């Protein structure tokens, strides 16, 4: 515990959470258009774009890129080709006609990494075309995934080639750099980003970025200022056995595991930004399809700037002691009608001083504007009104695992959801006096996930911290805005790269 920087008190808290069990959220109803999700009128789009561009020119925007995940899950369907085959000639263990390795290899020329794979196999004395002709699927997959070839299995997802262009191919990380050049560049041409890296791979990511930066700085007439960080070992969580006792390995040492993407709240907190975009590493578009994404990034950013301005103006008045009825009503109306805040039933009967203190406490929080897309059957969380411990509903991004699907009313609420979360957020993380919030104060520490895993053949229970855009932002002021489905093109499996939204003909 000491070597990881984890205090004893935190471990005791984690043990108590295991004993208590992961609690479910209580859904009130799904957020829908007009009831928790706002649709931006077309005639207001130029206004919000202009607001974003002025704030960007002033250097207020930056981009936080969670890129600390490896690509392992992206190739899950191909792993059997490596794990279950016989030794020797890969032809001795052919795959069924409908198996993923066969489909993958037959489509191989359409993937952006085809040329790199061919080159690395040639250097090893193996010809890719010959392997394809004799249907040596396993050998090809091994050269793609394992260190003897491209080593894609354990590379950071951001370093995988996603798109093919006439002048070469680009990684997901490069596409994010280009997107940043369009949305966060200030009047001096400076683009601020922060990239989180997998443990042990920070130098690899840094080296890659330094290699490609000159090309994009010249092409887009900008300069990049990029910070890097890894998920802190102090955010690891203790594993327990099925009886909730601390899990120990064969040497008797306690076993700590990464705490999930919610642990990146520490990295975001240390960034001390102002207005920050967040987007998943695999949700990128090629150049010919970036236009609509850049437009809606600017719309969301401008909308946030407008909301922040109103909230900060009211907070300044509340901080100065204003208690006149008109001003208090204006502040409470903004909370109810624009920010989705709920108030106790007897709030109108409170004294002006009590109302002022309550409004200040509810408004003096980080703000997030989240893009939501129409539900197209993609996996992921969604927007819901969730009942808090005080019984008042608030807008939250909820994962399916946080809901008791055995309860008929909760299952029905999930089924009625019309939108889902593509992880397209823009954040305001400074208070009305320009001071950075301590973002940890606004997380729900009990919104954890408890999962069952194995370690060296032994069963254990693992604890994942509140998700970065779930429980880690539970007490933020939250607004949902509908965005077009065209802004969402995730790559969860390698086959997603064959979708039309990722295909570019040379």
Profile the largest sheet. 10 strands, mixed
CATH class of the largest domain: Alpha Beta
Number of helices: 14
Unreliable stretches covering 5 or more consecutive residues: 86-98
Mean pLDDT: 92
Which class of secondary structure composition applies to the elements?
Answer: alpha/beta
Extended strand count: 19
- Radius of gyration equals 25 Å
Relative strand content: 15-25%
Distance between the termini: 53 Å
Shape: globular
User: What is the CATH homology-level superfamily of the largest domain?
Assistant: Spore Coat Polysaccharide Biosynthesis Protein SpsA, Chain A
Number of domains: 2
Quick synopsis:
The chain is α/β, with parallel strands linked by helices and 506 residues long. It folds into 2 domains: 8-71 and 157-500, Spore Coat Polysaccharide Biosynthesis Protein SpsA, Chain A; 81-154, no CATH class.
